[in-house]
Write a structure and sequence with these properties.
Elements: H1 3-14, H2 19-22, E1 28-35, E2 39-40, H3 44-53, E3 57-60, E4 67-68, E5 73-80, H4 81-112, E6 116-118, H5 128-137, E7 151-153, H6 163-173, E8 180-184, H7 187-195, E9 200-204, H8 208-220, E10 228-232, H9 240-244, E11 250-252, H10 255-258, E12 265-269
Parallel strand pairs: 6-11, 7-8, 8-9, 9-10, 10-11
Antiparallel strand pairs: 1-5, 1-12, 2-4, 3-5
Helix pairs in contact: 1-4, 3-4, 4-5, 7-8
Length: 271
């Protein structure tokens, strides 16, 4: 976390005049953060940075990415009582949000087997890097961090120019280090994109049966070998196994961030 980010987060939560913390005596105290439900713990790295910013010492009691049950002590804190109370909500918010993402990600990874589970750019503005890291902690793939990560040719691009023009222009203008991905909604477009040299084909908003048929068409046409196949759109924890069984290499899921429920943690002063 950049210092400028940390300062912005702290300023937002503490405000200009923290009267509630100012009534607390300046004594050394100890506290512990408890998981109040089963989860995959994430956000400990960010919690460490927040605690250090407030002059506090933190001790991790579990590893990042650990599966814990309700009642588990995950982080011990020592320092000025006033500082503990000022840092409390910021630490809990990071851990709650990030652990929620890691938990849903781990569930989907377990259901998808050997197929890679990736996130999308459907993230909270200003918080993307932390949400993407939570996906990684849960065992998922962060996918694209931003538009510059790869060349994504989507349906709206193809309303403005042909697929042939789009791929040719991408080859000409984009860096050789960037992969070209084409989003398709019809099986014939998947074959066409592969034959034109796309690196990745995304089957978008198709049923598992349709994607399975598309994979078979590419296999029969001798086009499967060099192209990476991705399924996206409408994939949830409940149906991710069905999409993973279609023969694709990756399933990408906005649900990893959009549908992640915050995990309940609490901070308790112990002395």
């Amino acid at each position: 976390m950049l210092l400028s980010e940390l300062e912005r987060f702290a300023r937002e939560d503490v405000g200009e005049m923290d009267d509630s913390s100012s009534i607390v005596p300046e004594v050394i105290a100890e506290a512990v953060i408890l998981a109040k439900e089963m989860c995959i713990v994430s956000g400990l790295e960010e919690a460490d940075q927040i605690l250090n910013y407030f002059g506090l010492n933190g001790e991790r009691l579990v590893q990042e990415g650990a599966a814990v049950c309700a009642g588990t002590r995950v982080l011990a804190i020592r320092g000025l009582a006033r500082s503990i109370l000022q840092a409390e909500r910021l630490v809990l918010n990071f851990m709650s949000r990030m652990s929620g993402i890691s938990t849903i990600t781990r569930s989907c990874v377990d259901r998808a087997g050997t197929v890679r589970v990736a996130s999308t750019r459907k993230t909270t503005p200003g918080f993307r890097s932390f949400e993407k890291r939570a996906v990684v902690v849960g065992g998922g793939d962060p996918h694209r961090f931003d538009l510059s990560s790869s060349v994504m040719i989507k349906d709206n691009h193809l309303k403005l120019l042909s697929l042939e023009e789009a791929i040719a222009t991408a080859r000409e203008k984009a860096s050789f280090t960037k992969k070209i991905e084409v989003e398709v909604e019809r099986l014939e477009d998947a074959q066409k994109a592969a034959s034109l040299g796309a690196d990745i084909i995304m089957f978008d908003n198709m049923s598992p049966d349709a994607i399975r048929e598309g994979v078979e068409l590419l296999n029969r046409g001798g086009l499967r070998g060099w192209v990476l196949l991705e399924a996206s759109g409408g994939i949830t924890p409940e149906n991710v196994a069905d999409y993973a069984a279609t023969g694709v290499d990756v399933v990408s899921m906005g649900a990893l961030t959009r549908s992640a429920r915050w995990i309940d943690f609490s901070l308790e002063i112990e002395i």
